[in-house]
What does this fold into?
Amino acid sequence: MTIVRFAPSPTGYLHIGNARTALFNALFALKTGGQFVLRLDDTDTARSTQEFADTILSDIAWLRIQVDRQEKQSARMARYDGVRDELKAKGLLYACYETAEELDYKRKRQMALGKPPVYDRTGLNLTDEERKELEAEGRKPHWRFKLTGKRVEWDDLCKGAQTIDTASQSDPVLIREDGSYLYTLPSIIDDIDFGITHVIRGEDHVSNTGTQIEIFEALGASAPNWGHHNLLIAADGSALSKREGSLSLKALREEGTQPMAVASVATLVGTSMAIAPRGSLAELTEDFDLSKVSSGPARFEPKQIADFSAQMVHALEPADVADTLTNLGIPTTVQADLWLAVRKNCDAPQDAKTWWDMLNADAVTSDLESDDVAYITLAMTHLPEGDISSETWGDWTGALKAETGRKGKALFMPLRKALTGQERGPEMGPIIVLLGREKLLDRLQKAAD
It folds into this structure.
């Protein structure tokens, strides 16, 4: 069975770039009948928070991604420690005592001599006596994994055949001086233990793949299949950051953005798949193919999400927005009529509150032209008798057209401004039904005064 994973760190809010990776994994699982594992990489205790973790869970649910298994790395530290000790016993994890400044100096020195800035394995060659002397100085070691230095090859699901020579890379640091783990080792242990068959992630991880495959092999495990997709970038070409609140999924969610608008853009931009709003993840899955991912970066325009979301909002039925309208304080007795009247003028369900407030205002500012005041006075006398209905607007304006010869904007605009205070908005037929006869006449009188 195919098993994929999405492994965010709860150190900030997810942005659309993170959503791209999560969705690629979720869609691949759907396409292959597999499972989706959500793993919170929360070993960075200084920056990880419960608030960020809770928000990630809300974001994933909002995107309609089904989570088959949920894990937290902070609950698995004993397992990581056991593998750490195993690698040390095999001589594959060795202590290094250089400071960050010393390592930087070494790199610059190597580059000045025309050599690649690869770690020289000073730590590996230290004697026991030298280690004791360094520790007596108060130095604490960081720990590196000893690479074999070989050609590592894999067939990437997005990029095709890939080759990395680990002899050209530094032995990776797996454990910091304070004993905390970097991303690599816990992630590999988790992938082995959870049976991850495919790792689908951003192309910024391609260079890490060779060393990670070597660690899988050192632990007696087969590496998963790999897929490295292109990255979303901002419209100005800059990288996306999960700490930029304006691009966060949380902000989009709270603004009333439709989740499938986000999912459609996050998935389809930067691919050969048609960029159009899709109604569900199942619909997205029909076209989804990692081989259709482009080789270059995918430029992300927020307007695409806004446009797709607005299209989806315009098609929502009253039942789809009932909870939102109730939370906005709009009575259930009028929700259906209100929503059907104003939805084409809402970019988000929350926008219905603006129109509800307009309908319930004591007065609106009409700003009529002087020659329209007499027209509004005349309009009051031509308002059909009885309750306001769906036919009233047509009958009323028809009578005014016959009486005055006005048509088009000159016929409709003064009435719209007098009744709503707006030059643009929903169709007036349903609006005057919601206003009712008494309020309608009151607003016409105030506009005429």
